[in-house]
Design a protein that fits this description.
Strand 15 and strand 16 form a beta hairpin. The strands form five sheets. The chain has a five-stranded parallel beta sheet with strand order 2-1-3-4-5, sandwiched between helices. Strands 15-16-17-19-18 form a five-stranded mixed barrel. It is an alpha/beta fold and about 400 residues long. It has three domains: about 100 residues, Methylthiotransferase, N-terminal domain (Rossmann fold); about 230 residues, pyruvate-formate lyase- activating enzyme; about 60 residues, OB fold (Dihydrolipoamide Acetyltransferase, E2P). The longest helix is centred in the last third of the chain and has 26 residues. The chain is about 35% helix and about 25% strand. Helix 7 packs parallel to helix 9 and helix 12 packs parallel to helix 13. The chain is globular. Bound molecules: iron/sulfur cluster (SF4).
């Protein structure tokens, strides 16, 4: 059997696809020296990552093996790869086995890490944001069939998964090209027998608004984590317009309000780009005000990185010092918000699921609201009642009180 050494970078979708591709090629080995093929799943979301990918490929080339580069680098920046590399673009993913001359399709099986399975439900999105290279790398949305997704879910449940993640560049856009939609898919998945939790991946606000009511209904299932990843990117309407995001700050707040009204303790995750062309103290203050108001539980802060092949590439940017100052300010605010939320949970009891190991030999459990609880002793795939002893940074620490049947 062909031996494959794999490295995967970027979002959960890219990582999941890279491991699916690896399984179709052959047997996974931990050491690049022992491999026949080296497979690297790449990301180009910001310039720094792209450079890192290129450095890593160069280093892996020293082993003198056949190198396959999958993902967003060959899709958006093919010109940066040398001829001795085999590129597989994201739109070639489903037929990659034919390109590589192997029998097994990447769609035959999804990868399970500990007790977590990620199912990539679609590729691409419906947007045309002026800064985003992912659109170049992944194109217009192409949804995978509902029956394939449901079969993959049944398969991973039989293999012991307790957490299923459905991922896409915009899960809210799922199905628009195949006469389906996300709420319908969620309902089909949660109707499967088994003790497991569904984590719905990132949803663009513009598409989320269109399905808000049925989405809230679908989320009501006890098998769906009350976790919403809704990237706002800016709290200023002028900046949102320049980004071509297709929604306003009010639209974003409306979604957050409706979700929190229904699921008050849920986890809200959002993303912010700091220093977009045209950003000034006033537009940044609007973002600060929004963050003070909605207090997201998870905040991913990225400094604007101009990407080639996008409209915003040559637009004039604010100074590096300003961007640094703004990101520090918003990070401080977020740390304070997070500390307050965590403090409130100390001393309480929760039911949790343990989908995976954590760092330093610990276990990473989740409440129904997707709050991370680190446990010293546990078993992956099990459910427990836990007591929260304290917190460190973004996670709670807990002790097991008893084993449970479900959350
Ligand atoms: S889709 Fe975006 S985040 Fe994911 S690997 Fe591609 S560039 Fe990176």
């Amino acid at each position: 059997m062909v031996k494959v050494y794999v490295e995967a970078y970027g979002c959960s979708q890219n990582i999941a696809e890279t491991f699916m591709l690896a399984r179709s090629i052959g047997e996974h080995v931990e050491n690049a020296e022992k491999a026949d093929i080296i497979l690297i799943g790449t990301c180009v979301v910001i310039e720094h990552t792209e450079h890192r990918m290129l450095r890593r490929i160069k280093k892996l080339q020293k082993y003198g093996k056949k190198i396959v580069v999958y993902g967003c680098l060959p899709s958006a920046r093919r010109e940066l790869l040398k001829d001795d590399i085999i590129p597989i673009t994201t739109w070639e993913f489903e037929n990659a086995h034919k390109i590589l001359g192997v029998d097994k399709s990447p769609l035959d099986e999804v990868f399970i890490w500990d007790s977590i399975a990620t199912i990539p439900i679609a590729n691409g999105c419906l947007g045309s944001c002026t800064y985003c290279i992912t659109k170049v790398a992944r194109g217009r949305i192409k949804s995978r069939r509902e029956d394939w997704i449901v079969n993959m879910a049944k398969n991973v449940l039989n293999r012991g998964a307790v957490e299923i993640r459905i991922s896409a560049q915009d899960t809210a856009a799922y199905g628009v090209d195949i006469e389906s939609d996300l709420p319908t898919l969620i309902k089909k998945l949660v109707s499967l027998k088994g003790r497991y939790l569904l984590r719905v991946g990132m949803m663009e606000p513009r598409e989320t608004l269109k399905i808000l009511n049925p989405l809230l209904e679908a989320y009501a299932s006890s098998k769906v984590y009350k976790f919403l990843h809704l990237p706002v990117q800016s709290g200023d309407n002028e900046i949102l317009k320049k980004m071509n995001r297709g929604y306003t700050v009010d639209d974003f707040e409306k979604i957050v309000f409706r979700f929190r009204e229904r699921f008050p303790e849920m986890t809200l995750s959002t993303d912010i780009i700091v220093g977009f062309p045209g950003e000034n103290d006033e537009t940044f203050e609007n973002t600060m005000k929004l963050m003070e108001k909605i207090k997201p539980d998870i905040l991913n802060i990225t400094r604007f990185s101009p990407r080639p092949k996008t409209l915003a590439y040559r637009w004039k940017r604010p100074s590096t010092n300003k961007v640094k100052e703004w990101s520090q300010k918003i990070t401080e605010l977020h740390l304070e918000n997070m500390r307050r939320r965590m403090e409130k949970m100390v001393g309480k009891e929760f039911n949790v699921v343990v989908p995976s190991h954590g760092k330093r030999g610990n276990y990473l459990a989740r409440t129904i609201n997707y709050v991370p609880v680190v446990l010293k002793k546990a078993k992956t795939g099990k459910f427990y009642r836990v007591h929260i002893t304290d917190f460190s940074g973004a996670h709670l620490n807990g002790e097991i009180l008893e084993e449970k049947e479900f959350l």
